[in-house]
Amino acid sequence: MPLDRATETYLRHVAIERGLSQHTLSAYRRDLAVFTSWLATAPVVDSDGADRAGGASAMDDVGRLARADVSEFVTYLATKPDGPLAPRSIARMLSSVRSFTAFAAGEGWLPLDPGTAVRPPKAPMRLPKAISVEDMEQLLGAVSVDADDPVQLRDKALLELLYATGARISEAVGLSVDDVTTLSDDSAPDADGLAVVKVTGKGNKQRVVPLGSFARAAIDAYLVRARPVFAARGASTPALFLGARGARLSRQSAWLVIQSAAAAAGLEAHVSPHTFRHSFATHLLEGGADVRVVQELLGHASVATTQIYTMVTADMLRDVYQTAHPRARR
After folding, report:
1. What is the pLDDT along the chain (330 residues), one digit of tens a residue?
2. Nearest CA to 124 among 94, 83, 91?
3. Which terminus of the chain is more exposed, N or C, with fewer CB under 10 A?
4. How far is CA 109 from the centre of its chain?
5. Cα angle at 28 between 23 and 29, to 5 degrees?
């Protein structure tokens, strides 16, 4: 089977069978396009050995793909003349190629999966960047709220929700009005009346995250005095956060809200939507929260992903100790 037809079959498969988002599908398509473009000019090495490259001949027959093709593609990405890719970008592209080769082998187009033994370059560990509690309070306080300005009321509600829940920006703009609710549970009287938000994360997995009093007050003010103004400008939608024309607020618009607030607060550190998520987790752990509780609140499938935040707090404790303790410095 020609490689281009094989990749299209694979993309249709993951779209239908795995229900991937359009964003993920586009990323897979781009990565495989880079791979096939490189492969079209790669040399062919004639050999019976499984590790020898099929090169450009694989364009006509996907069965000619070999492990050397995949490993040499990784080398190419790391040494591109117009600029090598970062290890994380290479790992993402390799993941797309390996997913395709595994599918091709499963369909019987390849005798063996050539991507199985190829590993990405090791990426340096990057600690999440959080801002201090004081900087976060300064940022949230920089959004002036005029009771008659629906934009300010919406922006305040969005920022308070991001910090109160640690939600990803896509999760926040994906919320509906009904996702913000109040618990009523006779079996757990201590939780009765607790404001929560139902967040839908990766893989459509839902989690329930409490809302603090500041976030709930900001959202209530937005729902009463601002959202009806936006809603009157567009078609009916259940979206919680609306844009100027009454449609669901986009991720790009939400990003601009954050940038504007950071600029108004005069923060020197770069503030992104994920800064709120990182700060949420870091501040909880600094306040004594259990790492597994934070894992649930963030929606991490594995506690290992959450534990990176414990390294952040450990670094902070070390720095404070070395700065403050008279016998910590030589």
Report:
1. 899 999 999 999 988 887 777 888 899 999 999 999 999 988 777 655 445 667 778 888 899 899 999 999 999 999 998 889 988 899 999 999 999 999 999 999 999 999 998 988 876 666 678 899 999 999 999 987 777 899 999 999 999 999 999 999 999 999 999 999 987 654 444 555 688 999 998 878 899 999 999 999 999 999 999 999 999 998 899 999 999 999 999 999 999 999 999 999 999 888 998 899 999 999 998 888 888 898 989 988 787 777 777 776 766 667 666 777 776 765
2. 91
3. C
4. 33
5. 95
- Report d(CA 195, CA 161) in Å as an integer: 12
Residue 180 β-bridge partners: 197
Which DSSP helix (H) or strand (E) runs through 100? Answer: helix 87-106
CB 129 within 8 A of CB 239: no
Supply 253's token pair: 């618009």
Active site residues: 168, 202, 274, 277, 300, 309
Token pair belonging to 88: 């994380």
